[in-house]
C-alpha cells in the first residue's frame, strides 16, 4: 500500500511541533499505515520547519516514509490525502477568536483553491486555525470540486475538555463517559451538552439537574478554556490541540466506537435547525468514510436556546466574511 500523504500547514508552529511527531509515530492512522509528512510554512517559517524535519528523521519512526517541506500551497497539497490546516495566527490575551477573522480568513481561500487544484480524490481536510468553523467554510467555498463534507472544523478539543471536566467532577475515568456533544461554534458561545451523556452509570441528565453547576461552572469552564490556557501559559493551547486533531482524524478514518459519538464542525445539512452551509459542531459518528449527524435527539428548551445563540454567531461570522469578500 502506498503511504498516505499528510500535509500540516503551520508545520513549524507550536501545534505543528506537537502534531508532527504524533502523526509520524502512527498515533493518527495506525501502526500499519506509512505516512509521508509534508510541512507547509510561510517563508519565515521554513528554517524552523527544516529543524523539525531533522528531528523527525532522528526519531526513526517506523511508519514515517518521508518528510517534505514546502512554502507553496499548490505543491504542498498536490496528491495530499489528509490536510491539517493549522497555520494561522493564534489569539493573545483579551482577544476573541473572531478577532482573527480578517487576518486569518485571507489564508484559507488560497489554501482551499490549492487543495481544489491538486489534492487526492479522497482528500479530507481538518481546519484547526481560528476561527476554525468560518475558516473551514472559506476553504470549502474555494474548493468547488471537493465535497463540502470533506472540510471539517475542529471542535474535538472542546469535546475532550468537556470529558476532562466531567471526569474530574465525578471521579469516573474518561473512557466511561459517552455521548457528550459540542454544538455550534468553536468559540465562547459553544454549547457543551450533557443531557444525552452517560458518565459511568450516571446519566448526564441527572448531573444537569444542578442547573447552577451546569450554567455557571461546567458550560463556561469548557467554553472559555482556551482563554484560561492563554492566561496560564502565555500562549494558546498546543499539545492538547494537537492531540484533539489526532483524535478527530483517527475517528474519521477508523470509525467511532459503537454506542458513542463525538463532535465535529461540519457543513450543516439543516439538521437540528442549523441553517444549511454553516460549519457548525454536531454530534457525529463515522463509519470510517464520512461523518453522520446523530439524528433524533430530543433538544430541550435549555439546550435549544444555547444552540441557537452559537449558530447565530456562526451566521454573523458568515456575514462578516461575505462583507470582506472572502466567500
Ligand atoms: P503558532 O503561531 O505557534 O504557529 C502558527 C504557524 O503557522 C507559524 O509557524 C506560522 O509561520 C505558520 N503560518 C502562518 N501563516 C501560514 C500560512 N499561510 N501557511 C502556512 N503556515 C502559516 O500558532 P499555534 O499555536 O500553532 O496555533 C495555530 C492556530 O491554531 C491558531 O489560529 C490558533 O488559534 C488555532 N488553534 C485552534 C484550536 C482549535 O481547537 N480549533 C486549538 C488551539 C489553537
Ligand atoms: C483553544 O481553544 O485553546 C484555541 O482555540 C486557542 C484559543 O484562542 O482559544
From TrEMBL:
Major enzyme class: oxidoreductase
Catalysis performed (reactions): (S)-malate + NAD(+) = oxaloacetate + NADH + H(+)
Residues binding substrate, per UniProt: 91, 97, 130, 161
Top-rank taxon, per record: Bacteria
UniProt: NAD(+) binding residues: 10-16, 104, 111, 128-130
SUPFAM superfamilies in the cross-refs: LDH C-terminal domain-like, NAD(P)-binding Rossmann-fold domains
Molecular function via GO: L-malate dehydrogenase (NAD+) activity
Reported function: Catalyzes the reversible oxidation of malate to oxaloacetate.
The name this protein goes by in its record: Malate dehydrogenase
Record organism: Saxibacter everestensis
Amino acid at each position: 500500500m502506498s503511504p498516505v500523504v499528510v500535509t500540516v500547514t503551520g508545520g513549524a508552529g507550536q501545534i505543528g511541533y506537537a502534531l508532527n511527531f504524533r502523526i509520524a509515530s502512527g498515533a493518527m492512522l495506525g501502526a500499519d499505515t506509512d505516512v509521508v509528512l509534508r510541512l507547509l510554512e510561510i517563508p519565515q517559517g521554513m528554517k524552523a520547519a527544516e529543524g523539525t524535519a531533522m528531528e523527525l528523521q532522528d526519531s526513526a519512526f517506523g511508519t514515517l516514509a518521508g518528510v517534505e517541506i514546502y512554502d507553496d500551497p499548490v505543491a504542498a497539497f498536490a496528491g495530499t490525502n489528509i490536510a491539517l490546516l493549522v497555520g494561522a495566527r493564534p489569539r493573545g490575551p483579551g482577544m476573541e477568536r473572531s478577532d482573527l477573522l480578517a487576518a486569518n480568513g485571507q489564508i484559507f481561500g488560497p489554501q482551499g483553491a490549492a487543495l481544489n487544484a491538486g489534492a487526492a480524490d479522497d482528500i479530507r481536510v481538518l481546519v484547526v486555525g481560528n476561527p476554525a468553523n468560518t475558516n473551514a467554510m472559506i476553504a470549502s467555498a474555494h474548493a468547488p470540486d471537493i465535497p463540502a463534507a470533506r472540510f471539517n472544523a475542529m471542535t474535538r478539543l472542546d469535546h475532550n475538555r468537556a470529558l476532562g471536566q466531567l471526569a474530574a467532577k465525578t471521579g469516573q475515568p474518561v473512557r466511561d463517559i459517552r455521548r457528550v456533544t459540542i454544538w455550534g461554534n468553536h468559540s465562547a458561545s459553544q454549547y457543551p451538552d450533557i443531557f444525552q451523556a452517560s458518565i459511568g452509570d450516571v446519566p448526564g441528565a441527572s448531573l444537569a439537574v444542578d442547573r447552577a453547576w451546569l450554567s455557571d461552572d461546567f458550560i463556561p469552564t469548557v467554553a472559555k478554556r482556551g482563554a484560561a490556557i492563554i492566561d496560564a501559559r502565555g500562549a494558546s493551547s498546543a499539545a492538547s490541540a494537537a492531540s484533539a486533531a489526532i483524535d478527530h482524524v483517527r475517528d474519521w478514518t477508523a470509525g467511532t466506537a459503537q454506542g458513542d459519538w463525538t463532535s465535529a464542525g461540519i457543513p450543516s445539512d439543516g439538521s437540528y435547525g442549523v441553517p444549511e452551509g454553516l460549519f457548525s459542531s454536531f454530534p457525529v459518528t463515522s463509519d470510517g468514510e464520512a461523518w453522520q449527524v446523530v439524528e433524533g435527539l430530543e433538544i430541550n428548551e435549555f439546550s435549544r436556546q444555547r444552540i441557537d445563540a452559537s449558530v447565530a454567531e456562526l451566521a454573523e461570522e458568515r456575514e462578516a466574511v461575505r462583507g470582506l469578500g472572502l466567500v
